[in-house]
Design goal:
single chain, 333 residues, alpha+beta, Jelly Rolls, Phage tail protein beta-alpha-beta fold, 3 domains, 13-stranded mixed β-sheet, three-stranded mixed β-sheet, 34% helix, globular, transmembrane, transmembrane helix, Anti-sigma factor, FecR_C, FecR
Length: 333
């Protein structure tokens, strides 16, 4: 995002015209680097100096630094020699900067808005994250987790895009909440899996141990061990069902289990785990049902098993794998 666009977004926030997604983006941007935080500190100093009768040496130094970042001259011409139009432009820029500082500093520095970190995995990668409260999160391939550097306030909030397995430390006074798409999973201390990849796929919360409460925009659902809550992003249907823990959480150990699943659904897991792209010859190929299990096997072995289990032919070109159904054999005469 360009600097001017960022300032415009901030002024919209000050006018209370931004969405919750935009607010979260702003908080994430601020927490991305120490340089961003230092910039906010310096801008805050400039903002505070606008209320003081005179600027001290620290304020003057911060002002010079900010001007350098904004491309403004270090020494401003006197009003008598300053052309009218640039003077108005400078005044407008200063107003935007001051509004940005006052609004964003309030947004970032409040106790309820801690500094966040972002962890992200690529296809074929997994990552284990230890949170400030001692909880452990195993992040699946092609997933993102945004979490605070230190937990404060009433809740321990994290934000997930993709899939992760959570092992949450107990804290009876501060519930742990996972925000994933339209669902919020709230626990005190337990082990569970959340899958929320988007792109038309379902969102699922699968409880292995303890108890969790899952909330959407209207209802609340209590899960017990062995239960899974699934939310279909296309139909909007939400339902509870039993689940196979080994099948749902096997990705942590590079294990894939398919029980009468469509190839199109199985392909998503294969692509994430092995960093490949599966292309179907036609819709009929995508509808092929699979019964197969792969326990930390190399990609060639998986492709060989797919051909046998689904009567498929595979053609590999680098990271792209083309799949088609085998032509039926003519009956023997």
């Amino acid at each position: 995002m360009e600097q001017e666009e960022l300032y415009l977004l901030i002024t919209r926030y000050l006018a209370r015209r931004t969405s919750s997604t935009e607010n979260e983006w702003l908080a994430t941007w601020v927490a991305q680097s120490p340089e961003n935080e230092r910039t906010f500190e310096q801008l805050k100093t400039v903002w505070q100096s606008s209320k003081a009768p005179a600027a001290n040496a620290e304020t003057a130094a911060a002002l010079r630094h900010v001007k350098a970042r904004l491309g403004l001259p270090a020494a401003e011409p006197t009003p008598a020699h300053l052309p009218r139009r640039p003077r108005y432009q400078l005044a407008a820029l200063v107003l935007v900067v001051l509004a940005a500082v006052s609004g964003l500093w309030y947004f970032v520095a409040q106790p309820s808005s801690p500094a966040y970190q972002l962890s992200q995995t690529q296809a074929g990668q997994k990552q284990t994250i230890r949170l400030a409260d001692g909880s452990r999160v195993t992040l699946a391939p092609q997933s993102r987790l945004r979490y605070p550097v230190a937990f404060g306030g009433t809740y321990r909030d994290v934000y997930l895009e993709g899939e992760a397995f959570f092992e949450v430390s107990k804290d009876a006074h501060r519930p742990f909440r996972v925000h994933s798409g339209t669902l919020t999973t709230q626990v005190l201390g337990t082990r569970f899996n959340v899958s929320a990849f988007g792109r038309g796929q379902h969102t699922a919360v699968s409880l292995v141990e303890g108890k969790v409460q899952v909330l959407d925009h209207q209802n609340s659902y209590l899960l017990t061990p062995g239960q899974q809550l699934r939310a279909d992003q296309i139909t909007g249907r939400i339902y509870r069902q039993a689940f196979d823990a080994e099948q749902v959480t096997g990705w942590r150990h590079n294990k894939l289990i398919f029980k009468n699943e469509k190839l199109a659904e199985a392909a998503n897991q294969i692509e994430r785990l092995y960093d490949v792209k599966l292309v179907f010859a036609d819709s009929a190929t995508a509808e092929v049902r699979l019964w197969a299990s792969f326990d930390n096997e190399p990609l060639p072995a998986v492709l060989d098993a797919l051909q046998l289990a689904g009567s498929l032919t595979c053609r590999r070109e680098g990271r792209v794998i083309y799949l088609s159904q085998q032509a039926p054999q003519a009956p023997l005469k």
